[in-house]
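Data card: per-record layout.
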Amino acid sequence: MTKDASFRFTHAITRRPAASITAGLRAVDTGTPDLATMEGHHAAYIATLRATGATVIELPPLDAYPDSVFVEDTALCLPQGAIIMRPGAPTRLGEAAEMEPHLRALYTTIARIEGPGTIEGGDILVTEREILVGQSARTDAAGIAELRAIVTAWGHALREVHTPPGVLHFKTDCSLLDAETILSTERLSASGCFEGYTVIHTAPGEEAAANTIRFNEVVLMPAGFPGTKARIEQAGFTVVEIGNSECAKLDGGMSCLSLRFTPS
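The structure for this 264-residue chain is written out next.
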């Protein structure tokens, strides 16, 4: 990876939430998302990405796929090319196929996870030195093995790690702040998976703040977690808070809402 390639990007792809979002998948029912509120939060998210100078491609809603606002699970975008994922939730398989033509327009090299294994982008954390992939309910050993074969050929090291029980995706509990710094819940970092990195822990009771994104000069984090926000700012990062109340009802966070990359 070139310096800072894990958090400096020229492009992002997002997809507007569909009216069918109320039927989105959720581990625990904490209420039905309000579409209008989610659209407002989504617009603020896109505006923040654009304010960094990035080109943001906003795709139209896909009513046939309630979870399609969470575009990150459909692909992994690396400097060498894009890899179309194979989501572990059967209702989401078609989302990856919908994303492929948009990435083909921007990348000369496209690879694809063919299966039978499954893997979702929410389980993949790309740092400057390696690609960390968490096994989870959505990402299995076969999917990770297929990804490893692709990225190894592109010069990347891949390390398989484990997502804590009851946590949807690896990145539900962590995110990259810069080349050497990771924001993590204590339950995830306790496994030792971030040895060699600087780890900032979410504040007690604020585990839901762990999923942020570093995008160029800013860290986008969900609103409402003052203790964690203070810890990130004390480490010298510029934070922008984005409402996430509705996406959170569908186990979604900051990283889920975009593919972030510099096309090749």
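Known properties of this structure: The chain has a mean pLDDT of 96. The CA atoms of residues 9 and 224 lie 27 Å apart.

See the next section for split statistics.
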